[in-house]
Amino acid sequence: MNIITILTGLVLLFTGRRLYWLFVAVVGFIAGFILTGQLLPEISPILRIIIGLIAGAIGAALLLILHQAAVGLAGFLGGGLIALQITQQLGVGSGEFSWLPFIFGGILGAILVLATFDWALILLTSLGGAFLVISGLEPDPSWANLAILALFIIGVIAQANFLRRQRVKVE
After folding, report:
1. How do residues 99-142 score in pLDDT, each as one tens digit?
2. For residues 79 and 101, what is the distance between their CA atoms, to the nearest angstrom?
3. Distance (Å, whole) CA 86 – CA 105
4. What is the pTM of this model?
5. Using CA atoms, how far apart are residues 160 and 89, in angstroms rounded to an integer?
6. What is the number of structural domains in the chain?
7. What is the C-alpha separation between 51 and 110, in angstroms, rounded?
8. Which of 27, 88, 106, 123 is deepest in the core (most CB within 10 A)?
9. How many CB atoms lie within 10 A of CB 47?
């Protein structure tokens, strides 16, 4: 059980829309870590972590400087990582074209985030947070997908309620 993964997942699950800079940083870290391992399998785990941290820091810095581009990039990376997780959970997507789900999910994630910023963040951070929590718990595969779905729904409801209360205060 990885407590950092679980805690990061819980933060994204419940506050991802409000702390979207954290979402960008976490997605950058995970993408850097995973892609480095896939592209350079001989690289040491410590160097993968360092590259992931640098990628996360760059993502967060870009968010501050180039808000729209960073949000689109985070949507692309988040959508791609979620697509990879889904194909792995389903036991498909390995082999020569294993990168295709990442590309298709990334394009969908970028479009979703840019078109409907608040709701896209709620959906992506809830799903990403659910995946992180469950992967940190390392559950029995027979109930992992159901747990991800349940956490996703809980995260969406929690963040949507906060968004609704926030919009009511503004009006």
Report:
1. 788 899 999 989 888 888 788 888 888 998 898 899 889 888 88
2. 9
3. 10
4. 0.65
5. 27
6. 1
7. 23
8. 27
9. 11
